[in-house]
């Protein structure tokens, strides 16, 4: 049976843009397709994060970045699985190039002041909550940048002589496991990515590029244990268990 077309809700006015990256593959999950388009409780993995960002007050634009081979999958998600229309673009060879292309896609609206903040999220983190995404957006607007993360109490740094160094006490330079969405002042992060492209700099995530090319402070927003990334088959099974246990549903 063909899945019915989703009823569409007009996008609320907002000066923030949400960018969802789906450039991964299904190799480590053991799937033959991009893991972002695997099913999770009746919807694709990607649809969960897209619908969560769509429900955040202040986000008026959603950009979905996919590989050229996945355009048909993305169009299906747009037509059948999301409540709000998506702007679908193709990404680059790396995460950073895909982020740059998304920012360039928004550049005219950023320059015109129509977009003041950008949230960049991994499609492979489907269970991000509305509250966390809203908190990141609020913090990014307050200080310039915001990154969610959970305390990494099980990590200990290693010294130059390969011996363990005592981990910092909680609240005093403690390590965190960084998550997404990561939010930044739009014009600032666009300039940072253009500078990185000129220099050939490749960071690990949005925050690393911001750290290298801007002086804006980046707030730490308390992340969520359920906002994990689906990388392996067991992660997808865990996500299904979380959805069932918490009675979640894709918006």
UniProtKB/TrEMBL annotation:
Gene Ontology molecular-function annotations: 2-C-methyl-D-erythritol 4-phosphate cytidylyltransferase activity
Entry keyword Endoplasmic reticulum: no
InterPro entries documented for this protein: IspD/TarI, IspD/TarI_cytidylyltransf_bact, ISPD_synthase_CS, Nucleotide-diphossugar_trans
Alphabetized SUPFAM superfamilies for the sequence: Nucleotide-diphospho-sugar transferases
CDD domains: CDP-ME_synthetase
Organism whose genome encodes this protein: Brachybacterium vulturis
Protein name (database record): 2-C-methyl-D-erythritol 4-phosphate cytidylyltransferase
PROSITE patterns xref list: ISPD (PS01295)
A UniProt-annotated Pfam family: IspD
């Amino acid at each position: 049976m063909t899945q019915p077309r989703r009823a569409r809700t007009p996008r609320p006015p907002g000066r923030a843009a949400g960018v969802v990256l789906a450039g991964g593959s299904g190799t480590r999950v053991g799937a033959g397709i991009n893991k972002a388009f695997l099913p999770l409780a009746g919807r694709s993995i990607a649809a969960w994060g897209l619908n969560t960002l769509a429900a955040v007050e202040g986000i008026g634009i959603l950009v979905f970045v996919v590989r050229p081979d996945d355009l048909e999958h993305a169009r299906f998600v747009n037509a059948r699985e999301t409540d709000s229309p998506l702007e679908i673009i193709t990404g680059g060879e790396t995460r950073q190039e895909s982020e740059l292309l998304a920012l360039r896609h928004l550049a005219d609206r950023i320059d015109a002041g129509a977009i003041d903040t950008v949230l960049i999220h991994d499609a492979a983190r489907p269970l991000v909550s509305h509250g966390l995404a809203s908190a990141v957006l609020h913090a990014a607007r307050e200080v310039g940048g915001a990154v969610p993360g959970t305390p990494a109490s099980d990590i200990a740094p290693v010294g130059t002589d390969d011996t363990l160094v005592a981990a910092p006490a909680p609240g005093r330079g403690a390590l965190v496991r960084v998550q997404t969405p990561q939010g930044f002042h739009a014009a600032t992060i666009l300039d940072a990515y253009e500078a990185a492209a000129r220099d050939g700099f490749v960071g690990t995530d949005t925050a690393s590029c911001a750290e290298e090319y801007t002086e804006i402070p980046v707030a730490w927003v308390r992340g969520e244990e359920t906002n994990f990334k689906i990388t392996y088959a067991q992660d997808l099974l865990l996500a299904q268990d979380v959805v069932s246990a918490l009675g979640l549903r894709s918006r």
